[in-house]
Design a protein that fits this description.
It is a single chain. The chain folds into 3 domains: 44-126, Immunoglobulin-like (Sandwich); 129-208, Immunoglobulin-like (Sandwich), CATH 2.60.40; 216-301, RlpA-like domain (Barwin-like endoglucanases), CATH 2.40.40.10. It contains 2 helices and 22 strands. The longest helix is centred in the first third of the chain and has 30 residues, at 3-32. It has helices spanning 3-32, 285-291, and strands at residues 44-47, 51-53, 57-63, 71-78, 81-89, 95-101, 106-112, 121-126, 128-131, 137-139, 144-151, 156-162, 166-172, 177-182, 188-196, 205-206, 210-223, 245-246, 255-260, 263-271, 281-284, 297-301.
């Protein structure tokens, strides 16, 4: 074999080795960059419910794409980057399932040990307004205290809407607690609802509607003895156990709240009266007893 032929064969061998080296380097780079190897599938993260109540759990499942057992990290995105919440063992087919507690709105992903990641999944926490016990009755000239706690806790904008009376806006403190006072302008039955506006941690939420009555003073007396067995203006017969009240113009059957001292009674309008000057109500003897009313004096009512 001539020297030139040997040289050409040697150069061809070097070219083949260079090609093989380049292919190997590309494979290594692809692995380092998280690209799938021929026997790998994509990393998958699925969320059963994309929203959950605060303190509840998100149900997660997925697969690593590796046909063997291993580990996967569930990560949440923060201002400083990705933070690992849980490390989970996978089965022999690379599948996994877990639950994580709902604490705040988050972006989640699954990441394998070889550096591959799933698509990002967004989950939302449903906030909640916890109301403290409130007063059921408030007398004119005083204010109603409305207070509670929003969760997740934190500084939040809170709106209190009193039906027919307007909206009061306040702020929950860092511990989630809020309190506001509302002063009624007139007597009547009212209701209100508290709503916490959405934040970066959770969605907005509203409390159940709460009811209360604003009471005004009125002069009252009572009637009954000597009249038992007689009919009443709204129909029926007056007896010692009849609970009701007489009023000059309120429709028959109107429910009226009465408060005297620490006692509260609800009675219906059953008769007309009183006809003594300066008096607003005539209580039946049973209503008088239920209130602990002395006979003539001032009672507080919602009408």
């Amino acid at each position: 074999m001539s020297t030139s032929r040997i040289f050409r064969a040697f150069m061809s061998l070097l070219a083949c080795l260079a090609v093989l080296a380049a292919v190997g380097a590309s494979a290594v780079a692809a692995t380092l960059n998280g690209e799938n190897a021929p026997d790998q599938g994509p990393v998958v993260l699925k969320v059963s419910d994309h929203s959950a109540n605060f303190g509840g759990r998100f149900h997660l499942r997925g697969k690593t794409g590796n046909p063997y057992a291993g580990k996967v990290r569930i990560q949440a995105k923060t201002k400083r980057g990705w933070h690992t919440l849980r490390k989970v063992e996978t089965d022999g087919k690379g599948r996994y399932a877990l639950k994580i507690r709902a604490r705040k709105n988050s972006s989640l992903r699954a990441k394998t040990n070889d550096g591959r990641s799933s698509k990002t999944r967004r989950v939302f926490v449903i906030g909640h307004v916890k109301m403290a016990p409130n007063e059921r009755y408030v007398r004119l000239g005083r204010s109603l205290l409305i207070r509670g706690t929003v969760v997740p806790r934190g500084v939040r904008t809170v709106k209190v809407r009193v039906r027919g009376e307007g909206v009061i806006t306040t702020r929950a403190r860092a511990n989630g607690r809020f309190r506001v006072r509302w002063t009624p302008r007139g007597a009547g039955d009212f209701s209100y609802r508290v709503r916490a506006l959405p934040s970066s941690k959770s969605t907005g939420d509203a409390s159940l509607r709460r009811k209360f009555s604003a009471l005004r003073p009125g002069h009252a007396s009572y009637y009954g003895p000597g009249l038992y067995g007689n009919g009443v203006a709204c129909g029926g017969t007056l007896t010692p156990t009849t609970r009701g009240v007489a009023h000059k113009y309120l429709p028959c059957g109107t429910r009226v709240t009465f408060q005297y001292g620490n006692r509260t009674v609800v009675a219906r309008v059953i008769d007309r009266g009183p006809y003594a000057a300066g008096r607003d109500w005539d209580l039946t003897e049973q209503t008088k007893k239920d209130l602990g009313f002395g006979g003539v004096g001032v009672v507080w009512t919602n009408k």
